[in-house]
Amino acid sequence: MTTFTPSSSEEVLSVVLGALSEEAPLEIVGHGSKRGIGRLVQAAHTLDLSALSGVTLYEPEELILSAKAGTPLAEIGKLLDDNRQQLAFEPMDYGPLFGDGPGRGTIGGVLAANISGPRRIKAGAARDHILGIHAVSGRGEAFKSGGRVVKNVTGYDLSKAMAGSWGTLAVVTDLTFKVLPAAETETTLAVRDLTDDVAANVMAHAMGSSAEVSGAAHLPVLVSGKVAGGALSGAAATLLRVEGVTPSVAWRIGHLKDLLKAAGEMQEIGAEQSRALWRDIRDCAPFAGGKKPVWRVSMAPSEAHRMVDALRRQAGANAFYDWQGGLIWLEMEADPEASALRAMIRRFGGGHATLIRAAEPERAALDVFEPQPPALAALSARLKAEFDPKGILNPGRMSGTG
Amino acid sequence: MSGLTMPPSDKATLARRAEIVADMRLIVPGEGVVDATSEMRAFETDGLTAYRQLPMVVVLPETTRQVARILKYCNERNIKVVPRGSGTSLSGGALPLEDAVLLVMSRFNRILDIDYPNRIVVAQPGVTNLGISIAVEQDGFYYAPDPSSQIACSIGGNVAENSGGVHCLKYGLTANNVLGIEMVLMNGEIVRLGGRHLDAEGYDLLGIMTGSEGLLGVVTEVTVRILKRPDMARALLVGFPSSEEAGQCVADIIAAGIIPGGMEMMDRPAIHAAEAFVHAGYPLDVEALLIVELDGCGAELDHLIGRVEEIARQNGSVTCRISQSEEERLVFWLGRKAAFPAVGRISPDYYCMDGTIPRKELPRVLHGMRELSEKYGLRVANVFHAGDGNLHPLILYDANIPGELDKAEAFGADILKLCVKVGGVLTGEHGVGVEKRDLMGEMFNQTDLDQQMRVKCAFDPGHLLNPGKVFPQLRRCAELGRMHIHRGQMPFPDIPRF
Ligand SMILES: Cc1cc2nc3c(=O)[nH]c(=O)nc-3n(C[C@H](O)[C@H](O)[C@H](O)COP(=O)(O)OP(=O)(O)OC[C@H]3O[C@@H](n4cnc5c(N)ncnc54)[C@H](O)[C@@H]3O)c2cc1C
Q1: Are A55 and A154 in a shared domain?
Q2: Which of A62, B65, B258, B360 has its CA 20 to 30 A from that of B42?
Q3: Which segments of B239-297 does DSSP mark as H helices, in order?
Q4: Does residue A67 sit in the same domain as residue A160?
């Protein structure tokens, strides 16, 4: 078992060629901050990309940033911050959930796991902001896709194909992302003490208004005390974030208060605390550090609380909602209850569940990623084979698909 | 492009035409199969009218099951299929083939569901882009991507082309606003990607499908995100003595952290053509005209309009009007929206290009275009999605003058090569189609193209769906799949290891 730490894309290519020629699969890692997600990879060697690091191009006025795959997300975040810009999809940090502490993770990992955050509902995920890549396929060929401009439809979008592929199609060596101005300020409106179903209505109302809400989360009472240093403890909190220039934020918060005045007691949370609050929601802080199984469920927002309610009649689970309910973070009491959960999601209109945190035997025994219907699974397998016919990149990590 | 080579016709298929037409009638009863030459004429071209070809037969299915049966039938008999929506493609994506079934999706014209709590519309692919916005208009919602062809183009065609519009800098392209599709693969299998939830599980096949130009599957249902209309929109109409200053103004607006709802630029020839056509009150003595539209709540607009005006002044603007009413805002847009027909009035024909460049290269590219214009002896007018660097040069020519079409195409190709040279791309929103197919080598090497073709192989290994588009040269999937690495031949390199 060797760990290779290439510092150039040429070296990455030669490692992949070596692996092909010896038919010795590789586990691809950046900082390894998301190693706990997915099936355990059975690989002869490790391809560690953390030395392939550095921002290679940053043009704030063109709204683009290019970096090598192993560049720390934190480094990019700082650079953008200094220029009052951001990755608008608000990439979450999985570290705290696994008890690893914050601040790790590479930009390559952000794309490979198609990471996003609360702003997903307004601004999209990593897939929506990737503009171009250079990569080495499992065939041992260096290829590129996309470009360095913000609008481009030339050829198939293989950059998007890398989003959520967890390193099973190709080793991405260089990435160009679209970046956007950071908001001047933000305010969060908290509606207190709502039940899950009323909260779902309130969030739908707010999202369907012209207030341009950029975060809509509901923290039931068991969870609300576990964010922003306990500032919201004692009652459920339904949170609506508004970002922009100061006069606009003030006006839109007023508009929301008006719109929701019958809903319940409300409080305004200023910029600094609001940022801390959404960071905790983004990083799933309420379930940080523990050992119980954690699921990430994506489904139609209006069905989320119904699904959770029905599931709870069968299994103990703690839950909170982001993306207006479209994202459910579920912490199970004991067993992951994979089949009960997936059956329930199907019953309530469909979606998918990913087992984010679980003990190793469970990760090995269960479908970590949502199983696909046969025609789709076959298509995914054919796609995998076109990129990595010998199965040398992260074998088994996505099981089923990859 | 005039010397366009399409895949050779399959004689065996053409010999069986009558039988194939009869079989299509069994699958799609009623009026859904068209084989009379006179009736097929309406389908012989799309928005790229320089190219015409009658299809073997036109089939207009009504259900996903019919589409599945047609594709399976064709797949088993090695018959090519060209999907078509409304036929507005500007890159020849829907150009028929002599030996292919033209699969027209226009009868898939129903909105299936409007779901306000989840802000979603589920539509059949033949529904027009504008049709979606109209369906939710009375409740104050709209579908954001707005190609200028929106009254005609279909949402299925939008998915196939990943279409944009003047609002996509702020609100994204089709890819960012589609949540799910149902599609049929060439082998007849029906597959659903995504749905009412975000981020489909597994590989981002939806991302690959969007912008795949009808080569990977036939879209039979589309789920899109709708948005609440902003409270209001106001526009600034700003004239500059040079494109450099206008370009710098755009850069400074973005650097100030402002992302306008729309930011469009026109050059002198385009301004003059538009003004003569619609009398929008555009200044005629400027080299560049910017329309900056801000949308949102009143408080935001009051705050930002002053800032944009100030930035324009600092960059040497010579005229600046701010819309004081909705009517005035629409008048500002009138000329821009009518730019294509306006140019059509001053020239018998025009050819619309679609490159994207890093914005800072605008002066260099405009300069290069002027030189090319002299070289080819053809005029060019420019409209420009300034915010995202997407150029639409309109080359003016007369198809009745022998050789002018060829000249216009050569001019267009040179412009696109220039775009790539300065760090840009061949197409920002109109797609590769047949038009830019043979220029793909300017941007991609053979390895890049081969990997794209391998994606095609995962979906359609027989190259039967829309062949002859996008790829300059089709390579057989078996050949593409071959690997040339032998065991033990390439030792692991000598690089840092633990
Ligand atoms: C005046 C004018 C202005 C335009 N302005 C813009 C603009 O501002 N922005 C922009 O992006 N584009 C613009 N276009 C280009 C064009 O309208 C878009 O590309 C549009 O999305 C094409 O849609 P359509 O339904 O007409 O597709 P078609 O032209 O019929 O087909 C386009 C491609 O999509 C495929 N296709 C169509 N339907 C399906 C389906 N159901 N399943 C699979 N494949 C399918 C076809 O095979 C073809 O490759 C403009 C065109 C015109 C004529």
Answers
A1: yes
A2: B65
A3: 243-255, 268-278
A4: yes
Q: Which residue in A142, A252, A380 is closest to B203 by CB distance?
A: A380
Residue numbers in A near B357 (CB within 8 A): 149
Residue contact B497–A5, C-beta within 8 A = yes
Total number of domains constituting chain B = 4
Q: Which two tokens stand for residue B254?
A: 């973005």
Tokens of B270: 């385009």
Q: Where is the domain boundary, B62, B78, B104?
A: B104
Tell me if B201 and A369 make a contact (CB, 8 A cut-off). yes
* Contact yes or no for B97/B438 (Cβ under 8 A): no
Phi then psi for A57, rounded to 5 degrees? Answer: -160, 130
Q: What distance in Å separates the CA atoms of residue A219 and residue A225, rounded to the nearest whole number?
A: 9
**B51/B36 Cα distance (integer angstroms):** 20
| Contact residues, chain A, for B431 at CB < 8 Å | 153
Residue ranges around ligand 1 (CB below 6 Å): B 46-47, 82-90, 93-94, 105, 125, 147-149, 153-154, 156-158, 160-161, 163-165, 213-214, 218-219, 340, 429-430, 466
| Record: contact B259-A84, CB cut-off 8 A | no
Which of B163, B354, B392, B460 is the best mutation target for the ligand 1 pocket, counting ligand atoms within 8 Å of the beta carbon and taking the most? B163
CATH of the domain at B393: 3.30.70.2740
Measured CA to CA, the distance from residue A355 to residue A15 in angstroms comes to 31
Report phi then psi at A54, rounded to 5.
135, 140
* CATH code (residue B97): 3.30.43.10
- E strands, A147-212, are 170-178, 180-181, 185-192
- Reading phi first (left if > 0) and then psi (alpha if -120 to 50, else beta), residue B294 is in beta
DSSP secondary structure string, B333-362?
Answer: HHHHHTHHHHHHHHSSEEEE---B--GGGH
Q: Environment class of residue A40 by beta-carbon count within 10 Å: exposed (0-12), middle (13-18) or buried (19+)?
A: middle
The dihedral through the CA atoms of B65, B67, B68, B69 has a sign that is positive
Residue A224 lies in domain: 185-282
* pLDDT band for position A400 (cuts 50, 70, 90): low
Dist. CA A344 → ligand 1 center (Å): 39
Cβ neighbours of residue A158 closer than 8 Å, sequence gap 6 or more: A133, A135, A143, A145, A146, B208, B451, B452, B455
Tell me the residue range of the domain where B404 lies.
347-421
A293 touches A331 (CB < 8 A): yes
B127/B133 Cα distance (integer angstroms): 11
What would the pLDDT profile of A213-248 be if each residue is shown by its tens digit? 999 999 999 999 999 999 999 999 999 999 999 999
CA distance to partner chain B, nearest, from residue A232 (Å): 26
Which residue out of B120, B176, B199 would a mutagenesis test of the A interface target, given it has the greatest number of A Cβ atoms within 10 Å?
A: B199
Residues B246 and B321 in one domain: yes
Of A121, A150, A210, the CB nearest to B388: A150
pLDDT tens digit sequence for B383-407: 999 999 999 999 999 999 999 999 9
A300, A325: one domain: yes
Per-residue pLDDT band at B492 (split at 50, 70, 90) = confident
A114 and A209 in one domain? no
The tens digit of pLDDT for each residue in A61-94 reads 999 999 999 999 999 999 999 999 999 999 999 9
Tell me, yes or no, whether B428 lies in a domain: no
**Predicted ipTM > 0.90:** yes
B317 and B336 housed in the same domain:
yes
Selected for mutation to probe chain B from A12, A29, A141, A153 (highest B CB count within 10 Å) is A153
* Chain B residues closer than 8 Å to A301 by CB: 117-118
Reported as type and span, the H/E element at residue B87 is none
With 70 as the cut, is the pLDDT of residue B261 above it? yes
In a domain, B317, yes or no: yes
